[in-house]
Amino acid sequence: MTTDTTTAATTPATTASRTKALRGLTALGGVATIASTFLSWTYTDEFPGDLTVYGYPGGLQVLTLVAGALVLLYALAALDIRGLRWLAPTGTTKALRLLALGAFATTWFTVVAIAVELGGIVNLEPGGFVAAVTSAIPLIAFLLPDDTHKATRPRELPSWAEILIIVAAFGTGLYVVTYGIDTEYAELFTGYMITAGFAVTALFKAGLMARLSGLTTKYRSIAVAAAFVAAAAFPFTQTTDQFTLIAVNILIFATVALGLNIVVGLAGLLDLGYVAFLGVGAYTAALVSGTTASAFDVHFPFWAAVLTGAAVSLIFGVVIGAPTLRLRGDYLAIVTLGFGEIFRITVGNLDGVSGPQVTNGPNGVPNIPDLVFFGYDFGESHTILGIELGGYANYYLLMLLAMILVVLVFSRAGSSRIGRAWVAIREDETAATAMGINGFRVKLIAFALGATLAGLAGTVQAHVQSTVVPEMYVFAGPVPPNSAFLLAAVILGGMGTISGPLIGATLLYMIPAKLQFLQDYQLLGFGLALILLMRFRPEGLIANRRAQLEFHETGQLDTPEGTLPESGVGTVKAGA
Amino acid sequence: MNDMTTTTETTTPVLDASGVTMRFGGLTAVRDVDLKVNAGEIVGLIGPNGAGKTTFFNCLTGLYVPTEGKVRYKGTVLPPKPHLVTQAGIARTFQNIRLFANMTVLENVLVGRHTRTKEGLWSALLRGPGFKKAEAASHARAMELLEFIGLQDKADHLARNLPYGDQRKLEIARALASDPGLLLLDEPTAGMNPQETRVTEELIFAIRDMGIAVLVIEHDMRFIFNLCDRVACLVQGEKLVEGTPAVVQGDERVVAAYLGTPFEGDTPEKAGTPDAEPAAADNAGSTTSTEGEGQ
Ligand SMILES: Nc1ncnc2c1ncn2[C@@H]1O[C@H](COP(=O)(O)OP(=O)(O)O)[C@@H](O)[C@H]1O
Ligand SMILES: [Mg+2]
């Protein structure tokens, strides 16, 4: 991070007053942008979200309104309004620029979308033009001098207030994510992604996120609890099952991605067929679920099915890992890639024609019954706390438990003797073995653990989907989870972190689910996005403390023989 | 599987390498080298670049499986597996620093504790009292070692961000964390200034006083002759001379080897009869520049 501090003391008074004027104008731009959302932007309600009403922002206008409000807030903070300084511990300008861009991009996206979808700019009411112009005003922020500085020391707050901040932050997070999942049409989701993307980056640049993560480190257990309470609250915000199903699938995807992160992120083993372990778990659970389509006439209780699924995955993990992990280099990647395909093709052929009848071949195992715990049927709606919860809400909460388990496993294993051995192996295998680490053994543990966790997630997935087919477990395909997307979620989110794969998986699931019109261009888009990400943020969205230093600290060492700068030695100790 | 060959003499040597030979295809990097290190000794290994010193270390520590020869540690033949060698009690540092660059200083030392702790995956997941106690003990021991080398204030820094000298010291601390009986140091002062070299010298004496035998490769002759009880000189894979610093320093063939005069292979067991080449000049104190190769 560059920290070129511009001290007001050294600049002439005229510059100071100019800066002030510019900030004032930016604030006015924010106000004007907000005001413009109360106008009507188009004549017809053919454009989704009904932007025709005066005095009542709808659909995409709400996003512009939020973006404008954020611009206003940060402009006021930049003007040193009392009570707002906490918004920007490390300076306002960069955040203000990003927010201005966000407001501008959201508004222009809306206006252009109206013009394109309805066939020409004649469909824009004057309000639309007003919005287009007013949303450009905050771009004045780009004339502001950079005021980035070291984070000011946070004022000591009583601990109840700090805890309240954490709770509020997670509440806001829940609201924002829920809003995204609940978006009804592709335009709104795109606008949401634009606004949210710029806003979140701005909050990072302003240092607000760093302060928040400081707080969450301080009250770790409370923060973790708050996060899970927020996550558990999601189904209670839903009126239909439609979006809960999306959320369940996101949870499955994210849980599996987190399991993969143990293998890839901690131990540094490239597993290109990870989804096969999910498939092993799912098929195992399906075959012992008592469905009439199963070749086995058994009906295991769920806990037994989970254990069986996890155990079978574990066995496959050991069988795949044991011969390959003795070798160095990329053999594992090739073998796991092969295993992924072998699994899919095998279950596709165990249909009684080309092989014994076990899996019904390409038709898969249908009619997997819903789970029933002590008479509590997961397939039915239940009323909890006076709120009607659909069937998927049950699976959502069950999957959340599975995810908590994987998070626990990740964090506990990661910060222990075995976790350090994984990272050491990843860093330098020769040195690690010379420190007494049995490389093969430690890698096999990581690989088998990853396989087991995926199998566990698979057992829940089988019941959620009620059908398992071979085509759910491909290497790459348009619908996550598949091996390529899982890896992408880990890399995009941030290797070796917990929140990274969760965020990566959420994005990678929501984008294709919401932007169905992309269909054919989706993979192309992901390819481009990954290339751009690797170019500009190789450590992923959420930087692991180590990766952050690895990629962005100046004067990094490529070889131990390299010259070592004395400056900035170990200055960054970000809590993560 | 371990054939104990306890000699009838007073003590078994800590390290007893006999007839170690390492061939890479047609190249014999190490040829029939015998070397003993006794308890409480600091032994130096010198020789021009490419003489096979690092390769010899790799043979000792199991990174290479020697083509011929045996390595005994306290009388037990070592299996050629690096982690088992470390487990047995030999720790090493690398000529080209091989720290875990993106781990913290403390974590690096904790990794060094690996062989002396037991906690597996289950105990990490269950976090019972035993796990917490073991972690606390590891931390305490690691901090102790960091204090010993003077890096206690940088425990939370990333290893990659340490200055060069500190990185070399950290490698030593990491090696010491495995509670070794023998420490192998591969050019521990390469790239250090004279002051840092002197500090390292003190450090090695202190390690010896902890009851750990030391085998050290160095090019800095002043350093070696100050430090070592015994010095062996390796040239083109063969042990040319072995003896007290004074003997080795005075050996003309050593001087010749360092000046690059071709050496016709005969393997005298001890330093002695200077028969062959008339050495040009004696500047045995010269330090050849180090080049990065090997492990
Ligand atoms: N893995 C290897 N494969 C082939 N040749 C090697 C290998 N390791 C070392 N050598 C060769 O063995 C010789 C001795 O190298 P080395 O032990 O690094 O010398 P020193 O440490 O004494 O400078 C060199 O010629 C080197 O090129
Ligand atoms: Mg060497």
UniProtKB/TrEMBL annotation, chain B:
Residues 15-261 form the ABC transporter domain. GO terms for molecular function: ATP binding; ATP hydrolysis activity; L-isoleucine transmembrane transporter activity; L-phenylalanine transmembrane transporter activity; L-valine transmembrane transporter activity. GO terms for biological process: D-alanine transmembrane transport; L-alanine transport; L-isoleucine import across plasma membrane; L-valine import across plasma membrane. Residues 284-295 have a biased composition (Polar residues). PROSITE patterns: ABC_TRANSPORTER_2. Residues 261-295 are annotated as: Disordered. InterPro entries: AAA+_ATPase (IPR003593), ABC_AA/LPS_Transport (IPR051120), ABC_transporter-like_ATP-bd (IPR003439), BCA_ABC_TP_C (IPR032823), P-loop_NTPase (IPR027417). It comes from the Bacteria. Keywords: ATP-binding, Nucleotide-binding, Transport. GO terms for cellular component: plasma membrane. This is ABC transporter related protein.
